[in-house]
Structures are given as structure tokens and as C-alpha cells.
Amino acid sequence: MGQNKFNKYFLILISFFTIYSCQFEWVEERRIYLNKIEFGLSVRDAFKQKSIKYFSEDSSNNDFILNISNLKFKKKNFYGGSGARAQQIEIIGQLEYSFSNMTSNYDGKLEISDWIQVNENNPQAEMTAQQKIIEELEYLLLEDLLQEYWLIES
User: Fold this and answer.
1) pTM value > 0.90
2) Would you say the C-alpha torsion 36, 40, 45, 50 has a positive or negative sign?
3) Helix (H) or strand (E) holding 20
4) What angle do CA 50, 53, 56 make, to 5 degrees?
5) Is residue 17 part of a domain?
6) Is residue 7 part of a domain?
């Protein structure tokens, strides 16, 4: 009876370790190794640091060069109501890029946007919300750039 109980717990323990060790293979690595990554003058340092999460330089692994030439965010106000006041703000992020190697060059432009409501009572909170949206749009642009790379690669 003691041997049977030992086998039961030993089997559970081995199953747990097997499942736990296999879990690491289920996670997909979302980092792309490129020969070189170049940034234009309009690209902020914060965006360069975020891009490290997705793209890394490794000259031995890939022959593609990524050039992010321009990154800009535009703010567009939408007016309405009886006093023709600003009701909503749209923030548009635009990213110009090119992937190039010895034989070809792929240029593109990504554009993404998001909306927020105008907060006339607390303009500081509105400005903070705009900064948070810009940070989120930067991540979304990098995700889209990652998808563009996979389309080019396939």
C-alpha cells in the first residue's frame, strides 16, 4: 500500500515537471534579428528603446537592414456642440520605414490612430492622456512593423 501511494505521488511529480518544462517551448519569440537598424533624426530615443524589444542587431543572422526614417504624431481636434468647442481629439501616428538587403528594397508607411475625449476641466489630465496614447501607439506601430517584416520574409 505504501509503494502504491509512492508511485502515485511520484507520477504526479514527474508529470508536473514535464508539463512545466514543455511550457517554455510554447512561447513564441517575437524578436527579429536584423543586420543593422538605423533611425532618422526625427525618431525619439524613447522609441529607439522600445524597438529593442522587437528588433535586435546581429550581423551574422540576417541580411536585412531596417531604416526607420521618420516617426511623427499629429493631433486633430473635432469640434461640435452649440458652442463649436472641441469634443474629441484624434492622435495619428505615422511611421516611415524601409527594409533593404542586397537584392531588394521594401519601403512603406504605417499609420495608426486613436481618440480621446476633450477634458476642459482638467487640461493637465488631457495632456497626460495624450502622452499615454502616444506611448501605446508607438507599441502598436512596432507590432505592425513586425507584421510587415514577416510579410516580406514570407
Assistant:
1) no
2) negative
3) helix 2-26
4) 110
5) no
6) no
Q: How many domains does the chain have?
A: 1
12 inside domain: no
**Domain interval for residue 75:** 32-153
CB-side neighbour CA atoms (13 Å) of 45: 0
- Is the distance from CB of 60 to CB of 69 less than 8 angstroms? no
Q: What is the pLDDT along the chain (154 residues), one digit of tens a residue?
A: 556 777 777 778 777 777 666 655 454 556 788 888 999 998 999 999 999 888 888 877 667 899 999 999 999 888 877 777 778 888 999 999 999 988 889 999 999 999 988 877 777 888 888 899 999 999 999 999 999 998 888 7
